[in-house]
Specification:
This protein is mainly α. It has two domains: 89 residues, Rna Polymerase Sigma Factor, Chain: A, CATH 1.10.1740.10; 74 residues, Arc Repressor Mutant, subunit A (Orthogonal Bundle), CATH 1.10.10. The protein contains nine helices and no strands. Helix 2 crosses helix 3, helix 4 crosses helix 8 and helix 6 crosses helix 8.
Length: 200
């Protein structure tokens, strides 16, 4: 590993502003501050990969701030980098929390809809009308729904029977098929009447 030149804070700022030996200056930043800054981020729940990504983004932000003349040297570069990294990481945590919350709401809603449809299908699984209806959905949906509701196979077992990558892909496909089935029922008054009679 190359050993970076030594810089005082003022020299480092000047090197970035003037873009004089900028690569050497960046190497110095990494060798001098990466470990301490990453350790700080990891202390707040980041993985090593998270810390690496955050520090890289921190260095980019630092260089941009210095080039725009917005760095006032009110704090040492080390303190400033940690502050920037902390803000980046906390913002990332907030985004992940919001994303996780949205995902939970989506999954709950989706599971609820699927449970509602699945309950009806379980009552109809041996009825010829439903079998005829499922055939109208096309071969991929027909295979998945028949294997799941008629043959009582698990997602893992369905993956072994059909050319899908994993259980999640099958689960997503099954959900779309159930949506199509629901749409088919709603858009066909006669079938809807028959299904309604079957579930009474």
């Amino acid at each position: 590993m190359n050993v970076a030149e030594k810089y005082t804070d003022a020299e480092l700022i000047r090197a970035v502003q003037e873009e004089k030996n900028l690569n050497r200056a960046i190497l110095f930043i990494y060798q001098q501050y990466a470990l301490s800054t990453s350790s700080f981020i990891i202390h707040y729940g980041a993985s090593e990969q998270d810390a690496e990504d955050v520090f890289q983004e921190t260095v980019i932000s630092f260089i941009d701030i210095v080039k725009k003349g917005k760095y006032r040297m009110e704090a040492s570069i080390k303190t400033f980098l940690v502050s920037v990294a902390r803000n980046i990481w906390f913002n990332e945590l907030k985004k992940r929390e919001r994303s996780g919350h949205r995902e939970k709401l989506y999954e709950h809603d989706r599971d609820q809809k699927e449970d509602d449809i699945s309950f009806k299908i379980s009552d109809l699984e041996k009825k010829r009308q439903l079998r005829d209806l499922v055939h109208q959905l096309g071969d991929p949906c027909k295979k998945i729904l028949m294997l799941f509701y008629y043959d009582d196979l698990s997602m893992k077992e369905i993956v072994e029977h059909l050319p899908y990558e994993n259980e999640q892909v099958v689960r997503n496909k099954k959900y779309k098929c159930l949506q199509s089935l629901t749409g088919l029922i709603k858009n066909n008054p006669e079938i809807a009447r028959q299904i309604s009679e079957l579930v009474k």
